[in-house]
Design brief:
The complex is a heterodimer. Chain A contains eight helices and five strands; from the N terminus they run H-H-E-H-H-H-E-E-H-H-E-E-H. Chain A is an alpha+beta fold. In chain A, strands 2-3-5-4 form a four-stranded antiparallel β-sheet. In chain A, 32% of the residues are buried. By secondary structure, chain B is of the alpha+beta class. Chain B has one domain: Muramoyl-pentapeptide Carboxypeptidase, domain 2 (2-Layer Sandwich), CATH 3.30.1380.20. Chain B is built from four helices and five strands. In chain B, helix 1 packs antiparallel against helix 2 and helix 2 packs across helix 4. Classes of the chains: A alpha+beta, B alpha+beta.
């Protein structure tokens, strides 16, 4: 009994390494456990994004037949980004609570997410008068549309589809199944249409209070 | 930047770097799906980068008031400056060849665009940073310098750094208009 109490257990910064953490930090410098989850958000000039995004549009353009398909492709691309962004964004904002209601979630997208991505909030958030499951996120000057000049014969193309896909997968992955479509109205309007089930769920929270 | 009453000539707004990296990653994933053979993908990425470089040069010169380069060392400095401006991470320039026609751009312990990337084994020939090479090539070509760029080390493939080797070939005498693709 007396032997164990003397020699074996070390805790904290004593000389002998204990466990994985200290082994790693000895060999390779600071370990992953020492780093904060919260990272400084770095911003690059909008030109970098514009140049890359223009190439993305260009790449798809040669591989589709209709404008609809092109928008689908862009939306898919945005979707890939959105679902990967979700974790990153949440950990960065140290959100310990998951949003349950529709409105706070949309406000999060409009406010914090937009700020995180573009350094400013989206311009407006509106609810449709006719349907209770439809909301509009309005962005007057979306970066995806600012630098893409659309030829006349393709005038219905809206590169905001990228943002729509991004928001759609961001919301869907956080438990708000929805479909998002971009329209060219007051700049770019993202029409968010939630599944009926989501609206029912949202209403049921009202009843429980 | 702009005088009062005029719209700003240069857009000073910023976009989250992660968004750009993820967008590029998603695009690469799409290209891999379309082409399958890594060599073809590399070719596409190079073309993509080239087209970026061709357009980038004008934007870069508009943002920076810089004179014409007189020798290749100045060119290297400009490329370094361009990376600092566009990717926020400045590579170190070094490893000059004795003839002074070849140098390395090195990012120690990082890849400026590769934060979220994992390489599956069967894609090891894929050159994720190829787009940077293409951009340098396109940009230099627009100012009548013909260069060849190779990826000497790739941090994503467990090297200690990302290193691009830039080699000067010749000055282009005729500035032919470059066809778009």
């Amino acid at each position: 009994m007396s032997i164990t109490s003397q020699s074996v257990y070390y805790v904290g910064d004593l000389k002998t390494p204990l466990g994985l953490h200290s082994v790693i930090s000895q060999d390779f410098g600071p370990s992953v456990f020492d780093q904060s989850l919260k990272k400084d958000v770095t911003f690059w000039p909008v030109s970098t994004f514009a140049l890359l995004f223009a190439q993305a549009v260009d790449y798809y353009q040669h591989r589709v037949d209709t404008i609809r398909q092109l928008e689908d492709k862009l939306s898919h691309l945005g979707g890939q980004v959105g679902s990967r962004l979700l974790d990153h964004f949440m950990s960065n904002h140290q959100k310990t609570k998951r949003e349950q209601r529709i409105l706070p979630m949309l406000l999060l997208v409009k406010g914090a997410l937009w700020k995180h991505l573009f350094g400013k909030e989206a311009d407006q958030l509106e609810q449709s008068n006719e349907a209770d499951n439809t909301y509009y996120i309005i962005e007057k000057d979306a970066v995806t549309n600012r630098f893409i000049s659309v030829p006349r014969d393709k005038s219905s193309l809206n590169c905001g589809a990228f943002l729509a896909g991004l928001v759609q997968s961001f919301l869907s992955d956080s438990g708000f199944a929805c479909s998002v479509v971009a329209h060219a109205h007051k700049g770019t309007t993202l029409v968010v249409e939630f599944d009926k089930a989501i609206v029912v769920r949202d209403k049921s929270y009202d009843g429980s209070r | 930047m702009s005088s009062k009453g005029k719209a700003p000539l240069l857009d000073a707004s910023k976009v989250n770097a992660d968004l750009i990296k993820l967008t590029y990653g998603a695009l690469v994933a799409q290209i891999v799906k379309d082409y399958e053979r890594p060599e073809d993908v590399n070719k596409q990425l190079d073309k993509l980068g080239y087209n970026i470089g061709v357009r980038l040069v004008e934007d870069f010169i508009a943002h920076h008031n810089i004179p014409r380069c007189l020798d290749f060392r100045q060119t290297a400095e400009r490329i370094q400056q361009a990376f600092r401006f566009y990717l926020g991470m400045q590579p170190s320039v070094g490893n000059w060849s004795p003839a002074g026609n070849e140098f390395s751009l090195t990012w120690e312990q990082t890849n400026p665009i590769g934060d979220f990337v994992e390489f599956p084994d069967h894609l090891r020939p894929l050159q994720y940073s190829r787009v940077l090479c293409g951009a340098i090539r396109g940009g230099c070509e627009m100012v009548q310098i013909d260069v060849t760029i190779n990826i000497a080390r790739e941090f994503l493939l467990a090297d200690s750094a990302t290193e691009l080797r830039v080699k000067f070939n010749k000055r282009l005498e005729d500035a032919l208009p470059v066809g778009e693709d």
